[in-house]
Amino acid sequence: MARPFERIAAGIAFILGLATILGALGSQYIGGLQPCDLCLQQRMPYYWGLPLLALILVLWGRLPKQVKIAGMAIVAALFAYGAYLGAFHSGVEWGFWPGPTTCSGLGESLSLDSLNELKPVIGCDVVQFRFLGISMAGYNAIISLAVAGLLTLSILRTSRQR
Hints:
This protein is an all-alpha fold. It has four helices and two strands. A two-stranded antiparallel ribbon has the order 1-2. The longest helix is centred in the middle third of the chain and has 30 residues, at 65-94. It is elongated.
């Protein structure tokens, strides 16, 4: 039995998102790149959206059309927000605008007990890795936009079904 285009598009969005978050986690835990605060915020759409999208894909044939559309719309909105965060972070890296104060390590009080738990503070304007002139934040913006676009396409096609 052939799979509908809508499910394939949503499945590609899921695989693209999963590969991206696994790559980010791999670059941290295997590659040694330390994420800044904005990097960690950019992961939230993946942590929330991918499980919901996986559930939709697993239950695709049993879900009412409206539930599929609503679920995919939530995931698409999460990834659209992720695209915004990636673009904002890229702008911080290029020096177009300042990043949040949490990226500088300022504003938190230190105690003698907390000195044992200090971790390196990575500034949001520090690019640890670029490929073809694009940082990981830039790639996240592009990929998040692609995931949101694929889901929007799936939503439009699903809404036209009877």
